[in-house]
Amino acid sequence: MENLTTPPAWTRVTNSSLEPGGTDDNPYKCVFDEDFKYVLLPVSYGIVCVVGLFLNLLALYAFIFRIKTWNASTTYMFNLAISDTLYVVSLPLLVYYYAMGDNWPFSAGLCKLVRFLFYTNLYCSILFLLCISIHRFLGICYPLKSLRWGHVRHARKVSVAVWLVTVVCQCPVLFFVTTSAKGDAITCHDTSSKELFGQFVIYSSVMLVLLFCIPFLVIIVCYCLMARRLLQPTRGISRLSRSKKKSVKMIIIVLVVFIVCFLPFHVTRTLYYSFRSWDLSCQTLNAINLAYKVTRPLASTNSCLDPILYFLAGQRFMRFAGNKVPWKPQNEVALGMVPNSHLGTSSDTDTQLSKDLKS
Question: What's its membrane topology (predicted)?
Answer without folding.
Answer: Multi-pass membrane protein
